[in-house]
Structure formats: structure tokens, C-alpha cells
Amino acid sequence: MRTLPVFVASTLLAASALHSARASAAGQIDCEMKFNLTGWAAIYKHAEGNGTITCNNGREFRVHIVAVGGGLTAGKYKVEGGTGKFSQVYDTGELFGSYAQGEANAGVVKSGVAQALTKGNVSLALAGTGNGVNLGVSFGKFTITKAH
User: Fold this and answer.
1) How high is the pLDDT of residue 127?
2) What is the distance between the alpha carbons of residues 37 and 64, in angstroms, rounded to a whole number?
3) What is the pLDDT of residues 97-126, one digit of tens each?
4) Which of 26, 47, 87, 125 has the fewest CB atoms within 10 Å distance of its CB?
5) pLDDT at position 89, please?
6) In terms of DSSP H, where are the helices of the chain?
């Protein structure tokens, strides 16, 4: 008779652990960003743009992007129709702020960008193509804020 309470208790414990794992997975949010960016560099790098972040929980945010930094770099460029994929988050507020950025680029007329950025536990992979002339290696920050 003692085995029934132990069986029930262990079944309830297993069920609650399974529910907790499902709730945790359900709490993760996938988000992607579409963006346009225009910039220049002459040792100091500056780029600005805008975009839209869309998440699988139905949330959508218009955003403003600023990338600044320095290094051995020069040129002028424009990225249109760029894409970004965020690592999973539990709160969309984690998407905003400054990401560490390192970049190596080269291009004449047609330019390309592919970067992996980090901000704490959140990562952002960027990809895009555009026009311009750019050459160099730079480091800095990539900041995403909600557009007003």
C-alpha cells in the first residue's frame, strides 16, 4: 500500500518537471530584424539606420540603429534590406541596447556585411549587401533603440 503514495508523488513530480520544461521553452521568443543602414568611416566609423524587429509572440518594433567605433578603416557604404537574427530571449526588452561589434570588410561598388554581435546573453547575427567603397578592420558598438 505504501507504493501507491510514492508512485503518485513521483508521477506528480515528473509531471510538474515536464510542465516546467515546456513552460520554459514556451517562454523563449524568436525575433528577427530587417534593416537599412548608411555609414562612413575615416578611422572613426559612424553608421545610422532604421528597421523593424518582428517576434514569434506577435510583437513588432520599429527601431533606430547607430553603429560607432574606430580602427583602421575608410569608406562610405549603404546596406538595404539587411537581416538580423537574434538568439532566443525571454523578454523582448533584452533586444534593445548596445552590442559589442568587431568587423572586417572590403568592397567596391557592391559591399557585403556579415557580423555576429553580442550583448550579455543575447547574440545578433547580421547579414546584408549594399553599395559603396569600404576597406578596413574596426571595433565598436551597435546600438538598437525603439524608434519614436
Assistant:
1) 84
2) 10
3) 999 876 655 555 455 667 788 898 999 988
4) 26
5) 95
6) 3-26
Q: Other C-beta atoms within 10 Å of 25: how many? A: 9
Number of domain units in the chain: 1
Cβ partners under 8 Å of residue 57, min gap 6 = 29, 92
Report if residue 8 sits inside a domain.
Answer: no
In a domain, 84, yes or no: yes
DSSP letter at 2 equals T
Does residue 107 lie within any of the structural domains? yes
Are 56 and 30 in contact by the 8 Å Cβ rule? The answer is yes
Neighbours of 1 (CB within 10 A): 4
87-125 burial by CB neighbour count: b if 16+ within 10 A, else e? eebeebebbeebbebebebebeeebebebebebeebebe
pLDDT tens, 88-100?
A: 999 999 999 999 8
How far is the C-alpha of 72 from the C-alpha of 122, rounded, in Å? Answer: 27
Grouping H, G, I as helix, E, B as strand and the rest as coil, residue 56 is coil
